[in-house]
Fold these 2 entries.
Entry 1:
Amino acid sequence: MNILCVGDVVGTIGCGMLRKVLPSIKQQYSVDVCIVNGENAADGNGLTPVAIKNIFDSGADVITGGNHTYRRREIYEILDSESTIIRPGNYPSNAPGKGICMVDRGKYTVAVINLLGVVYMDPLACPFDTLDEMLKEANNPKFCVVDFHAEATAEKKALAFYADGRVSAIFGTHTHVQTADEQILPKGTGYITDVGMTGPSVSVLGIRPDQAVYKMHEKLPTRFNTADGPCQFNAVLFTLCENTGKTVGVKRINITD
């Protein structure tokens, strides 16, 4: 079984790159389930109904979120009604949406879980404890992939070892820079610290370089805009054993215009 996890889609330009590349990638690698992080898919951060449609039309099966999930109020009702758009499960239970969805493929079902880190991030519930609770509520599914949207690499790696052998794979999102540490942990969980970004290549995490430089150098408030120009598509492909649910192969994918 092949699970494709696509890095944070940034703005309209990132949605365009996703639509351009994803269908052929799914065909090339015989993808069974495609998970796309879409929390930055709207221009100016967040997720809008238009961005949601663009991502699903491109071939995504599940859209995951992160710290910008609730930036746009117009999707709150969609989060409650659409099971294949999920938000970090360690937000309070009364927040719109859910942190897990089940992708039914007939002979098997894949659980997709979304969590948010708490190191240098919002003070939400412990992602370690939340993962335990969600796995228990889902009856410890054989096939389970986790999008851990977190800032600190150590927190991502620690959660991966904590979950090793209990989930099929964990991929990190949020930092928009693809890491070169794809691996299979000792008990069979596939892992990568950050899957990367789908968006403008000549940018600072998707933002116009001049604006990022001004913010970092001058220390003054500035309005960020999504950069334009050539794009990149970052993803990771996990191959799971259909008998055990464990990862047997991990492949990074990096495509540029």
Entry 2:
Amino acid sequence: MTTTLLYDGSFNGLMTAIFMIYDHKIKWPIIAPASREQQNLFEGNQEVITDVEKAQRVWKGFKTLSGHRDAHQVYCAFLSEIIGVENTIFDYLKMTFSHQRSPSGDYANPTVLKISQAAKMVGREKHRMEAFVRFHLIEEDVYYANVEPDFNVLPLIAKHFKNRYADQKWIIYDLKRDFGISYDLESVHEVQIDFRNPRGQRGILNTTVPDQSEALVESGSFRESEIQYRDLWNQYFKSTNIKSRKNMRLHVQHVPRRYWKYLSEKV
């Protein structure tokens, strides 16, 4: 009988589920996030309680056999959040443990190909986020940015922004997944914000709404210097834009429309 292991959606939770499969000698496992639980009369559901120690035993064992690059690729595949990716990762780890080496590079193997493709998609989204994040200065000298990436790339971009903006406090918030990363001049932490913006979408500082910029200045949400800086940036962007060389198709290819609402130069 198939056993469905329901985990909490975290990477440590997934590794704990894989530990349980080996520890309990489960022959026909399916791993799924508890949030996607579906009742099936022919399947037995089993809850996975995340255990960091057990998770690290699995992950360290895999990294020893595969190496850092391959392990990073598997982690990126996990961040893709593709339905069923947990079972693809389990198959990949199972092959590694069975043969005592990683199957990396064997693209004729459908599991290896799926991991590689998912990791590449996540990698592209990571680079886009690093390029398209736009911060706004809010009260208490904290810079804030909203994002809605296709994949869960916040864990991957934290190091980039910590190094690039090491001298300022900032928050990057993923509206789609309702969590963010915050830097306090020393370290990066995961945060959740309980807020409702009465104007436009939840949490979006929508400067396209008439007079909202002025209202944000008066309320302290935007500093006046931030408004001035944004206006100067927009003027610079417009002055360097050569209309005769405008190629909208190429522009959209490099800067997809879904990112435009967060770019100051598109206001």
